[in-house]
Structures are given as C-alpha cells and as structure tokens.
C-alpha cells in the first residue's frame, strides 16, 4: 500500500507540470491547404561534360517509360541549362526525314483524346511500348543514327521509369531497344546507368 501511495505522490507533480506548461488550449488552426500525397518524381538522363547525369524531375502524372521518354525529349529546362546540362537527342520539333515541316509546329487544337494536336503529333513521332523488364522505343522522327551517349540517355531514362513500374516483380535488369526511322536498332540495359 505504501508503494502505491509513493507512485501516486510522484505522479502528481509530473502531471501538474504537464498541465501547467503554459501552452494555451486551442481549437482547429487553419494553416494552408490539405495535405497531399507524395509528388511523383522521375529521373531523366542528361549530359554534363560528356557524361550521363541523372536529373530528378517532377512528373505530371504516373511515372512510366513513355512519360519519362517524352519528358526527356523535351530537352533540358532553363534551370538545367543554367547548370550546363544538355542533351544529344534531336528535339521533337526537328523535322522528320519523311516530312518537310516540323511535327509539332501545328497550332494547338483539341485532339480526339482531349490532348492538343502537338501532343498527337509527338506521340506519332515517338512510340514507347513497355512490359515487364523490356522497353521498345521507336523514334520515327530520327533518321540518322544516334551517338552512343544519346542512345544511353534514352536507355537509362526509360529503364529507370520501367523499374519503378516493375517494382515488386523481381526483374533484375531492364532491357531497352531503341529503333530509328530507318529501322536501325540499338539495345542496352540499365546495368551501366549511373546512379542518381
């Protein structure tokens, strides 16, 4: 009984300290908007001083190989250019070998899927097909052979995004096949891609 009284006597001062710590009782405090989930991030591979560099970017929607490749083909942002990051890939606005005018110079207008005509033209210029561990990229607007470093930009960017998509499937390496407008293909995997 004496032990119980001692515990009670020790707890009373501690409780009094917590209650009287000077923090006023408040109701609900409005402080900004509601909490949101994690912002999806993707990594594109740009070039700095002749080497590949993984660059994080915010994704507009879900991260997959197609969205990552299209993001890469937009080229470096102003901030990235200021950091002397560049790309060796021809921009989507480059004229394809089979047409005299740029693909995305069409004025924006709603396409059949609600996107702009420019988005439709871009998706016609590039197709990306992905399934577990394998990504195929067809660059219909590129007639010439890409340099090894430009091809590595595509391989590493697509493989990184596909690895996110394949999380939990046990895929050890992602293989990417890049084909140009003339049907020439180069294949590689993410095993040699630099870490971010």
Structure description:
- With about 200 residues, this protein is α+β, with helices and mostly antiparallel strands.
- It has a domain at about 40-95 and about 115-190.
- The chain is about 30% helix and about 20% strand.
- It is built from 5 helices and 6 strands.
- The strands form 2 sheets. A 4-stranded mixed beta sheet has the order 3-4-5-6. The chain has a two-stranded antiparallel ribbon with strand order 1-2.
- β1 and β2 (about 50-60) form a beta hairpin.
- α2 (about 65-75) runs antiparallel to α5 (about 150-165).
- The chain starts with a helix and ends in a 7-residue tail after the last strand.
- The model is unreliable at about 95-115 (pLDDT under 50).
Short structural description:
The protein is built from five helices and six strands. The protein is an alpha+beta fold and 196 residues long.
How many helices? The count is 5
Order of helices and strands: HEEHHHEEHEE
Q: Strand order across the biggest sheet?
A: 3-4-5-6
Query: Would you tell me the structural class of the helices and strands?
Result: alpha+beta
Total E-strand runs: 6
User: Unreliable stretches, pLDDT < 50, 5 or more residues?
Assistant: 95-114
Biggest sheet statistics: 4 strands, mixed
Q: Can you tell me the overall shape? A: globular
Rg, please?
A: 27 Å
| Approximate strand percentage | 15-25%
Q: Give average pLDDT, whole number.
A: 77
| First and last CA, distance | 64 Å
Helical amount: 25-40%
Multimer state: single chain
